[in-house]
Amino acid sequence: MTSSGGHDRLTSWREREAALYRVFPYGGLALGTLLALVAPAPASPGAVPTLAVAVAAGCWVAWFVTLHPDWQSRRRPMAVYYAGLLTFAAALVAASPWYGFFAWIGYIHAFPVLPGRWRVAGMVTTAALVATSQGGGLSVVVSHWLLWLVLVLFNLLVAGSVSWFAMIAEQEDVKRRRLMAELGEANRQLTETVQENAGLHAQLLTQAREAGVLDERQRMAREIHDTLAQGLTGIITQLEAAEQTRDRSADWRRHVDNALALARESLTEARRSVRAVRPETLETARLPDALVELGGRWSALNGVQAEVATTGTPRPLHPEVEVTLLRAAQEALANVARHAAASRVGLTLSYMTDVVTLDVRDDGTGFDVTGQPAPREPGGGYGLTAMRQRVTRVGGELAVESEPGGGTAISASVPALPGGAG
């Protein structure tokens, strides 16, 4: 608002200045003519010749200034105009000293119509004419040339001071115009940038929304794999074992009970996965204890000994890190049960300064990790692929070592990000 007000005041002042530039010559000419008629000079050529020159001077100004205002920006017509203006002023001052009021217009018109150093020449000539007028005319100046010279210097001093301030004001005006133009351009660019940023913001929101949907889909896919898929696979395995032992009541009942327990556990874990809650085992126990419990349940279900060991000093980790390690252990044990035909499994959880590592080893059939893909899960999923994605998601690494007949070793290393007290 302040800038707009200043700009309006500046525009108003320029309009008034332009009006004075056009009106002053007629005012000075009219005042000089009136005084010349009322109090004629002793050596005046007469009223008629003086009026004729005054009318010609007025017509000269009218033609160049009033009728053709657009000529002010054209150097050659304005040079002709200013030369004629001073010529008429000299003739009128010679006829009557009162026309010094008209000669004074030379100061005002020097800056708008003359370029560079020509302004100085115009001001010196104007100062000489005004000094002649102030000295009483040509007849007096000739006999008192020293006084005339002092008057010329005085007029030059006054006009030079005024002109210097005018030049400073003009330079400031040029700077102000340039700054206004730069500010307008900056505002235009800022508007374009704001509009562009608004578009980018909308695009980023769309991308973030799509990324969030994709991330949630991937999370649900992992959770379904780690809960429902593994649980259903275990249930099927236990029911198949029950079918094979239907003649042995105790074994049949054990397999059915295991299948029921797996179904309940899978249902609970599925509900917790939908709500994005940590596995129940991590809610009630620390990670080493949860792995011991997992190994015990797995051994009971599959009849294979699973030994769980912890090295280093256990400490609470970030919930996502603990969930990742627990899910990796579940997946590794599920793969052993489905593919390895192992007689022993070992799980080692190692706490180090910056890294926590889970190693799962078995003495099963193994596979060729370089020449063949990892064993594919029933239903089309890849257990190791899902495990690697989960470990990589928290900034960890998964290493698999295996060979046919030599068992398999899986190592999941994740950053030891601290968590709350557990």
Automatic annotation (TrEMBL):
MF term (GO), any: kinase activity
Keywords from the named record: 4Fe-4S, Coiled coil, Cytoplasm, Iron, Iron-sulfur, Kinase, Membrane, Metal-binding, Transferase, Transmembrane, Transmembrane helix, Two-component regulatory system
Cited InterPro entries: HATPase_C_sf, HATPase_dom, His_kinase_dom, Sensor_HK_TwoCompSys, Sig_transdc_His_kin-like_C, Sig_transdc_His_kin_sub3_dim/P, Sig_transdc_His_kinase_ChrS
Locations listed in the record: Cytoplasm
Record field: transmembrane: 20-41, 47-67, 79-105, 145-169
One Pfam family from the record: HisKA_3
Coiled coil (UniProt feature): 169-196
Alphabetical list of SMART domains matching this protein: HATPase_c
Keyword Chloroplast recorded: no
Region (Disordered): 400-422
Domain of life: Bacteria
Histidine kinase domain mapped to chain residues: 325-418
Cofactor: [4Fe-4S] cluster
Catalytic reaction(s) noted: ATP + protein L-histidine = ADP + protein N-phospho-L-histidine
EC number: 2.7.13.3
General function of this protein: Member of the two-component regulatory system NreB/NreC involved in the control of dissimilatory nitrate/nitrite reduction in response to oxygen. NreB functions as a direct oxygen sensor histidine kinase which is autophosphorylated, in the absence of oxygen, probably at the conserved histidine residue, and transfers its phosphate group probably to a conserved aspartate residue of NreC. NreB/NreC activates the expression of the nitrate (narGHJI) and nitrite (nir) reductase operons, as well as the putative nitrate transporter gene narT.
UniProt-listed PANTHER family: NITRATE/NITRITE SENSOR PROTEIN NARX-RELATED, SENSORY TRANSDUCTION HISTIDINE KINASE
Protein name: Oxygen sensor histidine kinase NreB
The organism's taxonomic lineage, starting at the top: Bacteria, Bacillati, Actinomycetota, Actinomycetes, Micromonosporales
